[in-house]
Amino acid sequence: MPDLGKYAFAVLGSYAASVLLILVLIAVSFWQRSRVKRALAEVEARQEKADG
Amino acid sequence: MSIWEYANPKKFMQTSAWALPWAVGLTTLCLTVGLIWGFFFTPDDYKQGSTVKIIYLHVPSAMMAINAWAMMLVTSLIWIVRRHHVSALAAKAAAPVGLTFTMIALVTGALWGQPMWGTWWAWDPRLTSFLILTLFYLGYIALWQAVEDKDTAADLTSILCLVGSVFALLSRYAVNFWNQGLHQGASLSLDKEENVSDVFWLPLLVCIAGFILLFLTLVLMRTRTEIRARRLAALLARERLA
Question: Tens digits of per-residue pLDDT, B128-163?
C-alpha cells in the first residue's frame, strides 16, 4: 500500500466512490437484463403454446 | 456490407452477442492494469502529492461523460434522420452510463479540489457546465420514463440531446473560453510540452482505454436489454389485442 500521507482521505475516497458507482451501475444493468430476459422468455413460451 | 445492417435488431443482437465477451475481457484487463499501475506504481507529484492518483479516475470519467453525450447525439441524429429504432435505444442505454461517469467526475473532482484549492466546489466555468450536463442527463433519463409512446419519447429525448450538446461542448472547452476558473487546462495534449509527465501519462492512457471499453461494454449490454424490452412490449400488446 503506498503512503498517501495527509491526502489519504481524498485518494481513497475517490477510489471507493468511483468503484461503488461503477458497481451499482453494473449491478442495475445485470438486474434489468435478467428481469427483461425472463419476462420475454415467459411471454414467448406462452405465445408459442397458444399458437400451437 | 453497409453499417446500416446493424440497425436491424436481429443483426445487432447477433453481432453484440459475439462482441460482448471480448469487450468484458478487455475492459477488465485495461481497468485492472491501469488502476493498479496508477495507484501502486506511480510516484507522488511534486506539487500535488499523492492526490495525483485521482487523475486515473477523474480524467477518464470526465472524458467519457462528455463522449457519452456525443455518442447519444450521433445516435439521436440517426434516429431523427433515418428512424432506426436501435439507434434510439442505444442512446437511451448510454444515458445512465454517461450519468454515472459524470457523477464520478464530480465526486472525484470535489475530493481532489478540497486539498488543492481549499474548497469542494467553485462556480468555475468547467465545474458549472459539468453540473448542468448532469442535470441534462437526469432530464434525459426522466423524459424517457415519462412518455408512454416510445417513438414520441425517442423524438423528444433526441431534441433534448441536441440542446444538451451545447453544455457537453462547453464542459470540454470551458477552460479555453474563460480564464477566470480554478480548473486547469487539458491533462492530455498532442503538444508534448503541455502533457503530464510520461510516468503518469502511460497508466492514464491505459485507464482511459479501460473507461472507453467499460462504456462500450455497458452500452452494448444495455442496448440488448432495451431491444428485448421493446420486443416484450410488442408481444404483450399483441396478447392484449388477441
Answer: 888 999 999 999 999 999 999 999 999 999 999 999
- Distance, in Å, from the CA atom of B89 to the CA atom of B219, rounded to the nearest integer, reads 10
Domain tally, chain B? 1
The alpha carbon of A20 is separated from its chain's Cα centroid by a whole number of angstroms, namely 10
Whether residue B190 has pLDDT greater than 60: no
Cell reading at B20: 460482448
Q: Please give the Cα distance from B17 to B10 (Å, whole number).
A: 11
Domain-by-domain residue ranges, chain A? 16-51
Give a yes or no: residue B117 inside a domain. yes
Residue with the three cell numbers 457519452: B68
Range of the domain at B173: 55-177+211-241
Chain A residues within 8 Å of chain B (Cβ atoms): 1-11, 13-15, 17-18, 21-22, 24-26, 28-29, 32-33, 36-37, 39-40, 43-44, 46-47, 50
Cell of B208: 482511459
Q: What share of chain B is helix, strand, coil (3-state, %, to 5)?
A: 80, 0, 20
- Specify if B30 maps to a domain: no
The enclosing H or E element of B60 equals: helix B55-82
Q: Is residue B203 part of a domain?
A: no
C-alpha cell at B205: 492512457
ipTM > 0.90 for the complex: yes
Q: Which positions in chain B have a beta carbon within 8 angstroms of at least one beta carbon in chain A?
A: 35, 39-40, 44, 49-51, 53-54, 57-58, 61, 96-97, 100, 103-104, 107-108, 111-112, 114-115, 214, 218, 221-222, 224-225, 228-229, 231-232, 235-236, 238-239, 242
| In a domain? residue B100 | yes
